[in-house]
């Protein structure tokens, strides 16, 4: 497992799932306010990111306890996803669905607050639960949104055993209805 990677604008720590990183943005303060860099192709290429940024999404979540996910896209639209927290605090979960991965079907959960983010490699599902009202995330994707290629895991799937921190306050109909993983699920 590579060690942490540092630059003047970021530092990145490897997560237990190969190719996933927790990223800390370094905020430059001065008397006017502050500046942070959200992304740079050289730094993210050093973490394994491939291709250009094809799409950027902004997720605004009114209530604490809101749960979104767990979502992933099937090949050929499986994607690198860089999820960064702009406001608030979220319990962020990445599930390894890569059939050949030593951490297949394992997940890692990390808290993200402002100036923190997570880089998620292709073949992983992503979801989060907000810990505070008004939590906002920005997503950078290296593949376009393809609804026909999108799939979901159920947040309470017994094969995943994810310990969500709060009672769920808001969740979409669709996210409540994802089927459980088949007991012989072979992965992606
Ligand atoms: C993701 C996406 C959605 N949409 C449309 C589809 C729906 O009409 C509406 C809300 O979509 P959805 O309920 O899928 O949004 P989230 O539940 O926040 O999904 C996201 O949250 C989880 C945690 C993720 O990791 C994914 O990036 C993403 O799937 O926006 C678009 O038009 N473009 C898009 O890229």
TrEMBL record:
It comes from Parvibium lacunae. This is dTDP-4-dehydrorhamnose 3,5-epimerase. CDD domains: cupin_RmlC. The record marks 145 as: Participates in a stacking interaction with the thymidine ring of dTDP-4-oxo-6-deoxyglucose. GO terms for cellular component: cytosol. It catalyses: dTDP-4-dehydro-6-deoxy-alpha-D-glucose = dTDP-4-dehydro-beta-L-rhamnose. Its EC number is 5.1.3.13. One of its GO terms (biological process) is dTDP-rhamnose biosynthetic process. Catalyzes the epimerization of the C3' and C5'positions of dTDP-6-deoxy-D-xylo-4-hexulose, forming dTDP-6-deoxy-L-lyxo-4-hexulose. GO terms for molecular function: dTDP-4-dehydrorhamnose 3,5-epimerase activity. The active site is at residues 71, 139.
